[in-house]
Write a structure and sequence with these properties.
The protein is mainly alpha-helical and 65 residues long. The protein is built from 2 helices and 2 strands; from the N terminus they run ββαα. It has a two-stranded antiparallel ribbon. Strand 1 and strand 2 form a beta hairpin.
Length: 65
């Protein structure tokens, strides 16, 4: 992940799955968002996962991601 100028970019997806064919895709996204937020929270950031994974999933379903 790269953060610059107020924008976050994901440049590597080591465990990427095809959400169209993997029935566990949403739960994997929720888990991964929680892990990333946990890492940044441990570094002092206000990084609570909240509804972030749900928002990402909704963007995916609307083909806006």
């Amino acid at each position: 992940m790269l953060y610059s100028g107020g924008h976050l970019r994901v440049i590597d997806l080591p465990q990427a799955v095809d959400a169209r064919t993997n029935r566990h895709a949403k739960s994997l996204l929720v888990r991964d968002v929680a892990h990333v937020c946990g890492y940044f929270a441990a570094q002092g950031a206000d990084a609570k996962p909240g509804t972030f994974a749900e928002e990402l999933w909704d963007l995916y379903l609307r083909a806006e991601l």
